[in-house]
Amino acid sequence: MAAKTPTIARIWRGRTLPENADAYERYNYEAGIKPLIDKALGVQTFREDTPTYAEFMTISYWENVEAMAAFTGGDPKSIHHLDRDKEFLIELPAGVQVLSIRSSHGTLGPQEGGEGRDA
């Protein structure tokens, strides 16, 4: 069976206070990312640390809007807040961004576990 090609990217963003960033990153991986890995064609997580906040971004890749909608329970732009998001996040995100993938070049990839890609 041929590998499925992603045509849709779903982007979620959230911000925490710097002192909560490490704990939120662990929680988000266990409660949010692990279940997503089993459903999406691919998942990437990003983190930017600043003096006043840490921003997290998750990009998940989907074969089509219907596959993404099946995961979200209907509306592909609907957001499912994790149980402890109110505790960690500065504000709850109102939605996600859904983009059509127009082109992709090269290989993606840090390995699982937060390690950077070898040079």
Structural overview:
The chain has a single domain (about 10-100), classed as Alpha-Beta Plaits. About 25% of the residues lie in helices and about 25% in strands. It has 3 helices and 4 strands, in the order βαββααβ. The protein has helices at about 20-35, 65-70, 85-90; strands at about 10-15, 40-50, 55-60, 95-100. A 4-stranded antiparallel β-sheet has the order 2-3-1-4. A hairpin with a 4-residue loop joins strand 2 and strand 3. The longest helix has 17 residues, at about 20-35. It is globular. It comes from Mesorhizobium metallidurans STM 2683. This is Antibiotic biosynthesis monooxygenase.
Give a summary of the structure in a few sentences.
The chain is of the alpha+beta class and 119 residues long. The chain is 24% helix and 25% strand. It has a four-stranded antiparallel sheet.
Which labels suit this protein?
four-stranded antiparallel β-sheet; Alpha-Beta Plaits; 3 helices; 119 residues; alpha+beta; 4 strands
Task: Work out the helicity level.
Answer: 10-25%
The outline comes out as globular
- The CATH architecture name reads 2-Layer Sandwich
Q: In CATH, what is the class?
A: Alpha Beta
Number of helices in the DSSP assignment: 3
Low-confidence stretches: 110-119
How many domain modules? 1
The percent range for strand residues is 25-35%
Structural class by helix and strand composition? alpha+beta
Strand order of the largest sheet: 2-3-1-4
Largest sheet: 4 strands, antiparallel
Residue-averaged pLDDT = 87
Instruction: Report the strand count.
Output: 4
> What would the CATH topology be?
Alpha-Beta Plaits
Alpha carbon gap, first and last residue: 32 Å
What is the radius of gyration computed over CA atoms, rounded to a whole number of angstroms? 15 Å
Order of helices and strands: EHEEHHE
